[in-house]
Amino acid sequence: MSDYPVISWTEDGETRSARWHSESGSPPPKKVIIADDKLNADTAYRLACEGTALLWRGDFQNARQLLQALARRIEHKSGKSKKVVKVAASPTEAFHLHRQAQSQRARTLAMLLLPFDADYRIPLRRAPDVQQACSGAYGSSTEPFVASLRELLGLIGAHEWRKKGVEIPALEGRIHPYYGVFSPVRGEYINLVADTPLPSTALAFDIGTGTGVLAALLAKRGVKRIVATDQDQRALNCARENLTRLGALKQVEVIQADLFPEGRAPLVVCNPPWVPARPNSPIEYAVYDPESRMLRGFLAGLAAHLEPKGEGWLILSDLAEHLGLRSREELLAWIDAAGLKVLGKSDIRPHHPRASDTQDPLHAARSAEVTSLWRLAAK
After folding, report:
1. Which pairing describes strands 204-207 and 173-175: parallel, antiparallel, or unpaired?
2. Which of 172, 179, 253 is nearest to 212 (CA)?
3. Is the dihedral of CA 265, 266, 271, 274 positive or negative?
4. Whole-prediction pTM value?
5. Rounded CA gap, 313 and 330, in Å?
6. Which of 252, 379, 371, 370 is nearest to 312 (CA)?
7. Contacts of 348 (CB under 8 A, 6+ apart)
8. Is 35 strand, coil or helix?
């Protein structure tokens, strides 16, 4: 057995074990029972809520239907709870209650487990071929393992996005996001970068490049050399593939770095995670920035990496302000403390479906949200 976490269970009177895989970083369930097509949804739901994991030995498609049934029961329970729970006292409380409900839902649905062979085949009736999707997300595999069905379905969905890509009008092309790398489905921030006048076309740094979408856009706008950084290996691989596909890799150097590369540039661009909250899984670090660490790190180091008369472009939503998680005064104080001044700010309203969904528990904040490009310079 490798150094990975191990999950154990009893089957046919014997104690068995396998490698445990969880992209969310959750530990293996302590209690595991064997389940198959004879298990009804009510019993499965009760067991999952109690923390008992169900290692599936039945038909794969029946497992999918069972997962859907579990999700319906969670939604039904949530609907009943809303009738008796008081309205959140503040947007901040609404946010934390929403995150708490999301986390509980994820834990419950993650209790339905699947076995995987060493080659990513699923040894169940009517199981699909997921080898390509698993290889793309997990890399090579050398031994059997157990993972949740919910994670697998998310992985399959991400694989389809990777194959299809996301159309980016400003690029006149597509970006193909990897599993675990934030997809640029919200295009308003890209339009801000496309429309803001460039201070120089000689050199730019793209901090936290992710899929490489902003590096590709800067290249398309005529910046001769771009250094794109990220800490995550998946993001680095994803960015290189997208830049190659778009014919921009000759202008862009993709390197692994914590925020800034060495040297200075006349333009430094950063689109950090917008919400200062604790992620529930490593994948959520693209959305949630605990204590605004990346944002504050970017601001603190920006002046030292700008050439004279250079500009730092900070792309940031004010959703956190509407949720009461960060104030505008705090942001301006961090900018000032970093020896920076604001040259200007361009705003755009989001046009994603959640902004107009009145059933969303965070609708009040989402409907007021504005995404901005802050043009910063050293004092």
Report:
1. unpaired
2. 253
3. positive
4. 0.88
5. 18
6. 379
7. 188, 189, 191, 192, 370, 371, 372
8. strand
One pLDDT digit (tens) per residue for the chain, 379 residues: 457 899 999 999 999 999 999 988 899 999 999 999 999 999 999 999 999 999 999 999 999 999 999 999 998 887 655 544 455 678 888 888 888 888 899 999 999 999 999 999 999 999 999 999 999 888 888 899 999 999 999 999 999 999 999 999 999 999 999 998 988 988 889 999 999 999 999 999 999 999 999 999 999 999 999 999 999 999 999 999 999 999 999 999 999 999 999 999 999 999 999 888 888 776 777 788 889 999 999 999 999 999 999 999 999 999 999 999 999 999 999 999 999 999 999 999 887 666 666 776 677 787 889 999 999 999 9
Residue 23 has which token pair?
């992209």
Residues 173-207, buried b or exposed e (16+ Cβ, 10 A)? bebbbbbbbbbbebbbbbbbbbebebbeeebbbbb
Domain regions of the chain by residue span: 6-160, 167-378
* 3-state SS assignment for residue 194: helix
Rounded CA-CA distance 308/265 in Å is 9
H helix runs in 248-313, sequence order: 293-302
Tokens coding 144: 């059997």
Task: Please tell me the class of the 167-378 domain.
Answer: alpha beta
What is the side-by-side strand order in the sheet with 31-35? Answer: 6-11, 14-20, 145-148, 112-116, 52-56, 31-35
